[in-house]
Amino acid sequence: MKIRRIYAGELALGLALPWDVHGETGGLLARLGHVISSEAQIELLLARGIIADASEDARGAAKEAPSALRMLNLATTGLALVLPAIAAGQVMAQEQLAPLAQLVQEAVALDADVALACILHNQGAGDFAVRHSVDTAVITALLARALKLDEAVLRSLVLAALSMNVGMLERHAHFQHKEGPLDAAERAYIRAHPQMGVNLLRAAGVTDGVWLQAVLQHHENVDGSGYPLGIDGAQIGVGARLIMLADRYCARVSARSYRKPLLPNVALREMLMADKATLDAPLASLLVRELGIYPVGTFVKLLNGEIGVVTRKGLSAATPHVQSLIGPRGARLDVPLRRDTRVDLHAIREVLSAEQAGLQFRPDQLWGRSARI
Q1: Chain Cα centroid distance, residue 218
Q2: pLDDT, tens digit, 9 for 90 and up, residues 90-103
Q3: What's residue 55's pLDDT?
């Protein structure tokens, strides 16, 4: 029997606990069968709870534990095959994309923290054009859940995020590696890709209006400066607005051949300031609330000198939970230390780039089984 911490993906509101949970000193915190009724209970159990997990002894006897990271990698691998086939008119889009959308939704439902961390720490999982669509779908699903959109609408928006760039697939790599300004023909091609994507999806059998509208409008801006239609305000569907936000954030934090990724907090700040006129302000605020000022996966240095990784949201956007991997004197810690940044000593001093942090770790060391490859 193995004594271990509880992983974030194992707790949810309304869930009955499958084990007794003890505190670090041995006292009982919650009994088997207790139903979680508040976020505060989740915070307490994750921060202090210890369980005796008999399932760890049954190696090979029980089926492999679900992993959000594995689900997203499968979605990326599948999408790399499906999108070219749609662009070539060889497959029916809904049949091929629906299982991939299901994987994304299941990953977010299993462990949203792991799904968000993958955007920053799993950038080698596939070609940028494909991985970027999966990353965008993750945040789109997260925002749609926060808005409590209908499940059918949520599924349509995840499908739209996965297929949003099918209309420029053949030249996506060209634009990814281009360093200089676009010429007139390239700009025209980019501005035409939403309509081209809709044409390809219709030819591949898609009739879902929510899906098609989101693909067509995902580069429209609320001030009317977007493309291809130049529409503004309420003319732009909520799904397209969500995908546009997710698309911009994921693009900013992704490495390109011609520039380094922005730090996650800088990417959000840049969106809210430089892009302010083009964004739906309430939805932009929702993005910050759901990601936090320091999104999951961000490297940070604490006031006490420790360096670690943001591993889950806190009670406020500015106070996430961190696991420290490097101690105050610069030595690697034998075991990651959980830090609540509401505590003054463990408050965040600054955000670091991957190079500045100099950390190597396996995702499951910080997020548990739902981050196993």
Answers
A1: 18
A2: 989 999 999 999 99
A3: 55
- Which pTM was predicted? 0.83
Whole-number Cα distances in Å, 316 to 232, 275, 331: 32, 24, 30
pLDDT on residue 24: 64
Q: What are phi and psi of 114, to 5 degrees?
A: -65, -40
Q: Would you mind telling me the total number of residues written for the chain in this entry?
A: 373
Q: Do residues 137 and 161 lie in contact, with contact meaning Cβ atoms separated by under 8 Å?
A: yes
Measured at the CA of 85, the angle between CA 216 and CA 206, to 5 degrees, comes to 40
Residue range 158-194, pLDDT digits in tens: 999 999 999 998 777 667 666 677 889 888 999 999 9
Pairing assessment for the beta strands 299-302 and 307-312 based on DSSP bridges: antiparallel
Poorest-confidence range of 75-89, 90-104, 214-228, 254-268?
254-268
Where does the chain have alpha helices with state H? 39-48, 68-87, 93-110, 112-121, 128-146, 151-163, 169-177, 184-203, 209-217, 238-252, 264-274, 281-291, 354-357, 363-367
Q: Which residues does 331 contact at the CB level (< 8 Å), separation at least 6?
A: none
How far, CA to CA in Å, does 220 sit from each of 90, 217, 224?
Answer: 29, 5, 7
Could you give the count of Cα atoms lying within 13 Å of 334 in the half-sphere of its Cβ?
0
CB 206, CB 164: distance < 8 Å? no
Strand order in the sheet with 348-352: 332-340, 321-326, 307-312, 299-302, 348-352
**The pLDDT value given to residue 20:** 83
Rounded distance, CA 254 to CA 182, Å? 20
Cα 205 to Cα 92, 94, 214, distances in angstroms: 6, 7, 16
